[in-house]
């Protein structure tokens, strides 16, 4: 009888273990309570769940990038509208019927337009400046006490993962959206540029004039550190402001662009309207009209540059939209696979629960009857 009791207790213990697993599966809808329950299945489940976590991280990152891209796109659209207004204002100044008071009003309007452009150029989302280049924590455009605006970001775009091991560039830099190519030269040709222009080569590296003599162009790397590569000599026309000339290397693929800041262009236009030069000296009516006419041409070139930058931004934004759709689809598939591998079959769990109930009932009935037998009856 003692042996029979031990057997029933052993069976009861097994039933309790099975009941615990059954209860766990019903409450969590997961097949495995411990990895040791099925090591092969557990290994597969770990691999799939790792994929799920990876794609969830990618999805979160791309969603954040998409939000920033949308704000950048909206800012570019606003910049284009503001610039269209600037072109319309300047066109009025080129007509003979515009009075001196009208010219003064146009000058004031352009000053307001410059301030609006400055605000949009420093657009930020969640503490990230969208037009700063690779370091989005710095304010890309700074203004000094004289109102001169300078781009202090870089020409390198940030890269964001769109798939495991695959990255794409996001956004546009201040070089793209608030500067336009005022001059271009290729290998062996002469590049003419102003002292305030920013010089970029075909690889996006910046070349800067050496002060104080300004007779050499020095290449700077992506971190803003001067390299040993130079172009010399640099000549200037001796005027104020000076126009410089550099002869490019005779290397295949060489292409240099002189980038003029739209803020500098607006400053020059305002000066022309106010009949002063860049240092505040008065100029003649003829000189003023010539500069205003030239500014109109340059404003249209700058507007074309803004449109190109906006198109580049749109193309990059579309890549991230497609990547988000792709990541979301893969995440859904891996979620389904994870459920198929590690999810409990609730119909089977319900059947097993009912079977356990019947087994418990039968076992406890047997234990009850056995405990009621006397030693004499058991021996008989």
UniProtKB/TrEMBL annotation:
Record protein name field: Distal flagellar hook-filament junction protein
GO CC terms: bacterial-type flagellum
Molecular function in Gene Ontology: structural molecule activity
Coiled coil regions, renumbered to chain: none
InterPro entries linked: Flagellin
Keywords, ordered alphabetically: Cell projection, Cilium, Flagellum
Organism (species): Arcobacter venerupis
PANTHER family from the UniProt entry: FLAGELLAR HOOK-ASSOCIATED PROTEIN 3, FLAGELLIN
Gene that this sequence comes from: flgL
């Amino acid at each position: 009888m003692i042996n029979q009791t031990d057997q029933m207790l052993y069976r009861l213990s097994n039933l309790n273990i099975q009941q615990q697993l059954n209860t766990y599966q019903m409450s969590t809808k997961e097949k495995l309570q411990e990895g040791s329950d099925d090591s092969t299945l557990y290994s597969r489940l770990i691999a799939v769940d790792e994929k799920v976590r990876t794609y969830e991280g990618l999805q979160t990152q791309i969603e954040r990038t998409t939000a920033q891209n949308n704000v950048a796109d909206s800012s570019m659209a606003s910049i284009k509208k503001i610039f269209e207004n600037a072109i319309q204002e300047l066109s009025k100044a080129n007509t003979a019927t515009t009075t001196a008071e009208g010219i003064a009003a146009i000058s004031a309007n352009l000053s307001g337009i410059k301030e609006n452009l400055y605000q949009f150029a420093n657009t930020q989302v969640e503490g990230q400046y969208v037009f700063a280049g690779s370091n989005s924590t710095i304010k890309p455009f700074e203004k000094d006490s004289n109102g001169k605006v300078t781009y202090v970001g870089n020409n390198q775009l940030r890269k964001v993962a769109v798939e495991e091991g695959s990255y794409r560039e996001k956004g546009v830099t201040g070089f793209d959206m608030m500067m336009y190519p005022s001059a271009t030269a290729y290998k062996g040709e002469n590049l003419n540029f102003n002292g305030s222009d920013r010089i970029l080569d075909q690889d996006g590296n910046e070349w800067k004039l050496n002060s104080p003599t300004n007779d050499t162009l020095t290449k700077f790397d992506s971190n803003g550190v001067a390299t040993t590569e130079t172009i010399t000599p640099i000549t200037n026309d001796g005027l104020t402001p000076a126009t410089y000339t550099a002869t490019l290397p005779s290397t295949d693929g060489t292409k240099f662009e002189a980038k003029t800041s739209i803020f500098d262009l607006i400053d020059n236009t305002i000066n022309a309207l106010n009949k002063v030069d860049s240092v505040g000296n008065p100029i003649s009516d003829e000189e003023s009209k010539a500069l205003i006419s030239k500014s109109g041409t340059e404003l249209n070139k700058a507007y074309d540059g803004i449109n190109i930058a906006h198109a580049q931004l749109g193309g990059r934004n579309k890549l991230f939209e497609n990547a988000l759709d792709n990541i979301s689809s893969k995440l859904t598939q891996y979620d389904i696979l994870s459920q198929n591998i590690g999810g409990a079959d609730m119909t089977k769990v319900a059947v097993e629960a009912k079977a356990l109930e019947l087994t418990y009932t039968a076992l406890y009935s047997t234990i009850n009857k056995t405990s009621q037998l006397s030693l004499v009856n058991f021996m008989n």
